[in-house]
C-alpha cells in the first residue's frame, strides 16, 4: 500500500475566488479552516454546508494547494456543479480531502508524458507543477481555442484542439485529438517512460493503447459516480485485473483509485458501466493541419 | 444546539446491552462506514476524529463467501436520500476473521459485526467462527444479523419478512454468542414490524435494529428505464426518517429494545429516536457524506446542563 | 421543460379506462383538492385555472355517515413531505349525493368519487346510491375505493392489507357500477402490493391507484412526544416518490393497470410513473401547495415535437 | 355566504422592499405578476419558488394592496419566516391569495373598535384604512415602545405597552394590556358597536369577553397551522358552534375563516388545540401608570 501520509480533513472552506479560466472551465479557490497537504491525482469531496447540502458530496481533483488554500477546475454538468458556479467570495462549502491514491511520483531517469483532456487537467497539471522536469511532456486537449485555459497552462503545455477556432494569434495548437498529439510527442521522447492521463474514457483508452504500443508505463485517473469518496460504501467500483480473483475484481475508485495502472483496467466492463463514457462521446479524428 | 429539557442521557457514556457494556449510544450503520477502518486518517479542523465518542461501528455485512456485489451503477443520489443496490459486496467471513477483526481490535474500534446468510444454520456457523476467532477481542461487542437486505436475490425480502425465519436465525446465532450482544436488523418492508421484533426477542436477541432500507425505485428520464440494473434498490436518508420513527415506535410498543436507524442527519433526528425509547441510534447515509457525522452528533448530544424552553426546540 | 424522446402521449387527450373515457391523465389525488369545488375562483397570472387540462378530480373520501375527523393537529410539515391524520373528515354520502355531486356536474368537473367504509357491503350500498343519484351525470367518470386510509381506527390497516377483503370490496361495488370506471386505491404498507392489485383486478376493478400515504411519525422535540395525537400519520410528498415508483412497478409487473400517485412535485416526476407504465397519475400534496399544480403539470407534458437528447433529461 | 367576489391568484411576486418597521416586526412589499383585490381580514399563502419551496406555504394577513403591490407585516418565528427575513429586492416568492373570509364591512351607524396585538395588526389596520370613520377606535398593543411601528400607525391608533421603555418622547402609550386599553376606550364609545380583533389567543378571548360584557358584536381573526390555505385539505379546523351539529363542528380556518363571529368559537377546544396559544404566553396584567 502506497497510501499518502497526509491527513484527510473534514472541514469547511470559504470561497476566495470563483470564475472562468476558459469557456466552460471554471476555477474555484477555497480557503480551508486548516492547511492541507496533497499528492497529485488526489481529490476532494465538495458539498454545500448545512441544511442545503446534497445527500452526497461531489468529487473534484485537486489542482493546487497553498497552505490553507486549495484550488479546483470544474465544468458545469448538473445540479452540483451548477451550485458551484454560483458561489461568491465568502460563501461556504464543506471539504473532505485529500482523498484517494495519487499518481506515482517521478522516476529518476524515465520521462513522463502527461495527457489531460478538458476537466481532466487538474491532476496532471498538479503533477507537472510538483514534479515536472526537462524531458517531460505535457499535452492538453480542448474542443477549440476558447476551451483552452491558455494563461493557466503557460508555456509548459502542448495544446491540441479539434477546431482551430479561437486559438489566439500568439499561441499554436495541434489540430486533432490530444492523444494524437501525445503520440507525436512520445515518438520524439527518450522513452520508454511513464504516461499519466486524465480525461474522458476514449482519451484514457487511447492513452493506454499508446503506452502499451510503445512499451511505456501508464497510469490513469478514472471517474465513477461516488457516494462517500472515502472507501466505505462500495458505490464507486471499477473492474480491475487481480491475479487472485478471476476474471477480475471490483476496486473502489475513490480509495483504491482514482489512479490505476492502465494495465489493470478491464475496459470492456469499465467502458460499459461508466455513465461517464457517454457524457463526452468519442469524436472522429480530424485531418491534421 | 440547545438540548431539550427531557434529554438527560450522556450518549458517550457506557451502557449495557445484553451481556455487554457498549462505550456509547451513537453508532455507525452497516454498509455506510465500511469495516470501520477507512477513516483512520480523517480529522476535523479541530482534530476530532470519526471515532471520538462513537459507541460502535456496525461493519459492512459479511457473508459466508466473498461477494462481488451488483453491477454498476449501484448508488443513486435522490433529492430526499439515496437508492443503493450494492448487493452485499464483502470479503467473506474467512478474510474478515483473519484480517479485519484483528485490525479492528488493534485499532480499538468498538465493533458490531454484521452477518448475512441465506439459511439460518449459516448464521450459526458464522457466529461460531466469530466467537472462536474473536474470543480475545475486547472491542468486539456484538453481532447484528442482517435479516433485511433488499438487494440480494437469494436471501432477499421474504427471508426477513417471516417471523419464524427471523426466530430461527436469531436462535442459531445466539447459542454460539454467550457473551456478546446479539441484534437482529429488521426490514421495514412489512406490514407489522412489531411481530418480527417480538419473534427476534423471544428467540434471544438482546435488541433489534430498525430500519434497513425501504424498497424504492428511480427512473432515468432520458431512457424511461429504472436507473438501477436490478430495478429496485434500498432507499435511505432523510426521506425515510418518518417511516423509521414509526417502525421504531411500533417496536417499542412491542416491548423490544431497539437501536434506531434511518434518515438521521443531525442530533435533532437522533433525539427523535431517543424520545420514542430507542436505546441507541445508528447513522448511515449521513456518515457516508461526512466521516465525522456520528462523532459530531455524539458530541452535540452531551448534556451540559444547558436546556431550553419547551416550544423552542422544534426548529433551528 | 424539454420532454424526453420516448414521451409521445398527450396527457390532456381523452383515454379509455374501463367503461369510461376520461378527459385526461393528470388527476388530483383524494383529500388534497377537497371535493373539487374550492378552487373555482383561482387563476394563474395568465388566467389558467386549476381545471384546465385536468383529467379528473378524485374527491375527498366519502363515508356512509358524516365524520368530524381527528383532533388537531392533523397535518405536519416535514422537510421531505407532510404527515397527516385528517381522519376522513367528510360530509357523508347523503349530503355528498344531494349537494356535492350535482355541483360537480354543474361545474363540469371530471369526477372520480372516493369511497371508504368499514365493511365490503357498505361499499356496495354506497355504490348503488351513487349509481342511482349520478345516473344522469356525464362528468362523473368513476369511483375509487379507498382501501388504505391509515388514519381511521375502525377500518385502518388490516382492512386493505388482506387480498380477500380487497376483492370483496371491489366485487361489492362493481355490480352496481356497470358504466363507470372502478378503481381500488391500495395501501403501500404491505410487503407485496402486487398481490393486492391482482386481487382487485380479478374482482373487477378497472385499475388500481397506488399509493396512499406511508405510515410515518414525527416527534415534537420540545416535549419528546409524537406531534400527532394519534401518534402515527400518513406520510406524503416528495419523500415517498421512490417508494411509490417501486410499488407502481410491482403492480405493472402483476399486469394490472395502475394510476400512479405519491410524491409528484412536477412534470418530471409524473413522467417517471408514465415511464413505468402508469395509465394516469394523481397529484396530492403538491396540489395542496398550489391549486394550479396539476394543471401546470398537464400543460407541461403536452408534447410539442420538441424532444431532447438522451442524457440531458435527468437533471434540470 | 358572504364570499368576496375577488379572484384568488396563484402567481409569482418579486420583492420590492423588506425590512423592519419596529423591533421584531418586518414589512414585506411584493410586486405581483398581476393586480389583485382584497378585503380586510383576508390573507395570502407565501412560499419560496422553485425547488426550494416549502412543502406548504405560510399564511400571512394582507396589510394593503395597491394595484399589483401587496404588503405584509411579519415576525420571525421559525424556518419560513426566517427565509422571509432574508429576502432582498428582486427575490422571488410564490403568492396565493387573497384567501379566506374577511372582516364584515362597516355598519352605517355603529362604531367599530379595532384591536391588534403584535403581528395581529395587518387585518385590523387594513380595515381601518379602508373603512375607518370618526368614532371608530383602533388600539394596538406591543410589549414595549420598541415593539410599536409608530410611523406605520400614525395618529389613528391608541397604543398600549407592557413596559414603557422605548416609547418615544413625542408619543404616549397606555401602560398595560391592549384589551384593558380597549375596554377603557369602549367605555367612552357610543356603543354598542362592533369589536374586530386579531392577535394571540388570550387577546382574542379578552376581546370576546369585553364585547360580550358590553353587548357589542365581535369578530375575531383566528390562526391555525395550515396546509393548503384554500379549503381543500381539512388540516386547519377550528371548533365552532353550529345549531345543526352538536356539540360543535369543525370549520376550516382558511376558507370558512380566518374571521369568525366570536360567539361561535368553542374556546375550551380551540384554546387547547391551538399550538398558537403557547407561542405567546398570557402575560400578567401590569399596574397602570
Ligand atoms: C476522482 C474524480 C475527480 C474528478 N475531478 C473533477 C474535476 O477536477 N473537475 C470537474 O469538473 N469534474 C471532476 N470530476 C467529475 C465531477 O465529480 C462531476 O462532474 C460532478 O460530480 C457532477 O456533479 P453534478 O451534480 O453537477 O452532476 P449530476 O449529473 O447532476 O450529478 C448526479 C450524480 O452523478 C454524479 N456524477 C455526475 N457526473 C459525474 C462524473 N463525471 N464523475 C463522478 N460522478 C459524477 C454526481 O457526483 C452526483 O452524485 C471528478 C470525478 C471523479 C470521480
Ligand atoms: C390567517 C393567518 C394569518 C396570519 N397572518 C400573519 C401575519 O400577518 N404576520 C405574521 O407574522 N404571521 C401571521 N400568521 C402566522 C404565520 O403564518 C406564522 O408565523 C408562520 O406560518 C410561521 O412559519 P414558520 O415557518 O416561520 O414557523 P414554523 O414554526 O417553523 O412553522 C412550522 C409550521 O407551523 C406553521 N405555523 C407556525 N406558527 C404558525 C402560526 N402562528 N399560524 C399558522 N401557522 C403557523 C407554519 O405555517 C408551518 O407549517 C398568520 C397565520 C394565519 C393562520
Ligand atoms: C450504500 C449503503 C450500503 C448499505 N449496506 C448495508 C449492509 O451491508 N448491511 C445492512 O444491514 N445495512 C446496509 N445498509 C443500510 C443501512 O445500514 C441503514 O439501515 C439504512 O441506510 C438506513 O439508515 P440511513 O437512512 O441513516 O442511511 C446500507 C445502506 C447504504 C446507503
Ligand atoms: C391531507 C391529506 C389528506 C388525504 N386524504 C385522503 C383521503 O381522504 N382519501 C384517500 O384515498 N387518500 C387521501 N390522501 C392520500 C393522497 O390521496 C395520496 O394518496 C398521498 O398523499 C400520496 O400522494 P402525494 O405524495 O402526491 O400527496 C390524503 C393525503 C393528504 C396529504
Ligand atoms: S464512493 Fe464510497 S466507496 Fe467509493
Ligand atoms: S389549510 Fe387546507 S383546508 Fe385549511
Give the tags.
heterotetramer; A: alpha/beta; seven-stranded antiparallel β-sheet; seven-stranded mixed β-sheet; disordered C terminus; B: 316 residues; alpha/beta; TIM Barrel; eight-stranded parallel barrel; 9 helices; binds flavin-adenine dinucleotide; binds flavin mononucleotide; binds FE2/S2 (inorganic) cluster
Walkthrough of the structure:
Chain A has seven helices and 16 strands. With 289 residues, chain A is of the alpha/beta class. In chain A, the strands form three sheets. In chain A, strands 4-3-7-1-2-6-5 form a seven-stranded antiparallel β-sheet. A seven-stranded mixed β-sheet of chain A has the order 11-10-9-8-12-13-16, sandwiched between helices. A two-stranded antiparallel ribbon of chain A has the order 14-15. In chain A, helix 3 links the parallel strand 9 and strand 10. In chain A, helix 4 packs parallel to helix 5. With 316 residues, chain B is of the alpha/beta class. Chain B has one domain: Alpha-Beta Barrel (TIM Barrel). The longest helix of chain B has 16 residues. The termini of chain B are close together. The C terminus of chain B is likely disordered. At the B-C interface, strand 13, strand 14, strand 15, helix 6 and helix 7 of B face strand 13, strand 14, strand 15, helix 6 and helix 7 of C. The structure holds flavin-adenine dinucleotide (2 copies), flavin mononucleotide (2 copies) and FE2/S2 (inorganic) cluster (2 copies). One flavin mononucleotide binds next to strand 8 and helix 8 of chain C.
